[in-house]
Amino acid sequence: xxxxxxxxxxxxxxxxxxxxxxxxxxxxxxxxxxxxxxxxxxxxxxxxxxxxxxxxxxxxxxxxxxxxxxxxxxxxxxxxxxxxxxxxxxxxxxxxxxxxxxxxxxxxxxxxxxxxxxxxxxxxxxxxxx
Length: 130
What we know:
It is a single chain. With about 130 residues, this protein is of the alpha/beta class. Helices cover about 40% and strands about 30% of the residues. The protein contains four helices and five strands. It has helices at about 25-40, 60-70, 85-95, 110-120, and strands at about 1-5, 10-20, 45-55, 75-85, 100-105. The protein has a five-stranded mixed sheet, sandwiched between helices. Helix 2 links the parallel strand 3 (about 45-55) and strand 4 (about 75-85). Helix 1 (about 25-40) runs parallel beside helix 2. The model has no long low-confidence stretch (mean pLDDT about 85).
């Protein structure tokens, strides 16, 4: 199951995965919310919390996730993954470089920190760019 996390700042979306996550979860919750947000924002921030109740993704959910990421490949500003699931942490660490966004991995105990990070303004460099 996927549910939206409320209370994040404008331009940021958050989702919590628990139990078995299916392609239907993606098509009914995550995809419509993200597509609607991209309709009004050029860049988005995403917090994805895969908590202790998570039991796995079915193949269709993994396919939907890959398609969504590719469809908006350059549209992500920041992505926070919050999980203690070992294989997801290893995969995220190995593939984090491929995400064209600021990416940070958090443990479940750091959920509040991840929520704060997703809302922080980007630092300005010496040229005044964010």
